[in-house]
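U., I forgot to send this yesterday:
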Amino acid sequence: MTSARMKHRRFPTILSSARDLAMLRVAPIYSAPLPRVHVGPSQAAGALRVFDRSSGEEILVYTPIYDAQFKAGHRAGRWYVRSAAGGTGLPRSIAFTTAREAVEAVAADAWRLRIVSPDAAGRSGQPRVRVIWTIPDSNN
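Result:
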C-alpha cells in the first residue's frame, strides 16, 4: 500500500478520557506525589531496608539478634532503626513495638536519638540519652 492510499484511522474516544483531559486542563499535574519512604523486601532475620527519599539515606529497621546488641542496650522483641551504613553498637533509636511503628517514625523523621553528652556515662556505664520530640507548628 502506498501512503496516498492509506487512510488515517481514528480510534473511538472513550468518554471518560475526554472528562479526564478537561480536568487536567483546569488543574494540571506537574509531578506525581511519591511517599517519603520506600520499604524494600525483607532482609535476613526479618530486617527491613527503608529508603528515605527526602534525605537520600538508606535506613535499616531491625530487631536485635546478636549478643553484642543486647549487651549494648537493645531489648528482645523490640524494633530499632539505624542507618544501613552504621554498625551494630548502641541503639540509634527508641525501641518500637512493631516494625510498622518504626517505618512510620522514619517517614516522620522522628527516629533519631540525640545524645546529650556522649562522654558523661550514666550509672550503668552507658551514655545518657535524651529524646527530643518536635512539636508541630500550630500556625500552619
